[in-house]
Amino acid sequence: MELLQLRYFLTAARYQHMTKAAEALRIAQPALSQSIKRLEQELGVSLFDRERRAVRLNDAGRFLLKTLLPIMEALDALPDAVREQAARAQGTIRLSLAAASCLAAGWVAEYKRLHPEARFLIRTDFHEEQTDLCICGALPDAPAEKGSRLLLKEEFFLAVSSGSPLAAMQGARLSDAKDQDFITLCTDKSAWQAGMRFCREAGFTPRIVCECSDPESAQRLIGAGLGAALWPVYSWGVPRHPDLALVPVSFPDCRRDIFLVRPPSGGDAALLGDFCRFLQNKSKGTAADS
């Protein structure tokens, strides 16, 4: 069996019509039919039931399709995987900023100024096999990831419109906001889970009226008086919107742990070790300032 034969089979299986499949492949229909016939001869089984111009997968064809799809997906992903491996050997750190992204992005920029030769591939989710380092969040009593180190604790503030009576308070109990509508940032699962838990500890379930995809949109909605939010300042940054205020929460303890996770399959050990030490030193300075 040749790889091209298998790709032709997948296209024919998708369209279940030889002419349409040939058009999609930009080859002549007889050439496609001959390729499928040779594949069937090599396997010793028929893969399609022929019905005039249309074809329909039979049991053997469906089995081959189901077995072949993950193999072809893996083959299609192979070039990127090879290039990524080569990049790792050239001093590249694959960094996942699943939490504290605003703070950590500044650290990355500072490290890059000190080490111009270092390269970064940055993503906002965490896949162990595609990551050398991850900065992620967890509740204080949550089990730590294997190979993780605590960097710092991130405080959640109550973000409200500057016109809200809560904005004038030096510190508020979270229950003071129980009658407020709430806005969440749906791209940070850990922050969402933390916010829900803090509200439960305060004795209420938040009434969520909007889930945003970025902090900038959340700022504008809160500033316009559409709702309040629990705001993790290291992750979402200090708001710049003039009509938004951050209020410290006195109860419950609205903080989560920020961990540095280093999977065992990481790349350049010397570079990763140096960058880890840099991050730990920066986190100590941040904790001392807060």
Question: How are the SSEs ordered, and which strands pair?
Answer:
Blueprint: H1 3-15, H2 18-25, H3 29-43, E1 48-51, E2 54-57, H4 59-88, E3 92-97, H5 101-114, E4 119-123, E5 133-138, E6 148-161, E7 172-173, E8 181-185, H6 189-201, E9 207-212, H7 215-223, E10 229-232, H8 233-236, E11 244-247, E12 249-251, E13 255-261, H9 269-289
Parallel strand pairs: 3-4, 3-5, 7-12, 8-9
Antiparallel strand pairs: 1-2, 5-13, 6-10, 6-11, 6-13
Notes on the structure:
By secondary structure, this protein is α/β, with parallel strands linked by helices. The protein folds into 2 domains: 3-87, Winged helix-like DNA-binding domain superfamily/Winged helix DNA-binding domain (Arc Repressor Mutant, subunit A, Orthogonal Bundle); 92-290, D-Maltodextrin-Binding Protein, domain 2 (3-Layer(aba) Sandwich). Helix content is 44%, strand content 24%. Strands 3, 4, 5, 6, 10, 11 and 13 form a 7-stranded mixed sheet that branches. Strand 1 (48-51) and strand 2 (54-57) form a beta hairpin. Helix 1 (3-15) packs across helix 2 (18-25), helix 1 (3-15) packs across helix 3 and helix 1 packs across helix 4 (59-88). The longest helix has 30 residues, at 59-88. The radius of gyration is 27 Å and the shape is elongated. The N and C termini lie far apart (64 Å). The model has no long low-confidence stretch (mean pLDDT 89).
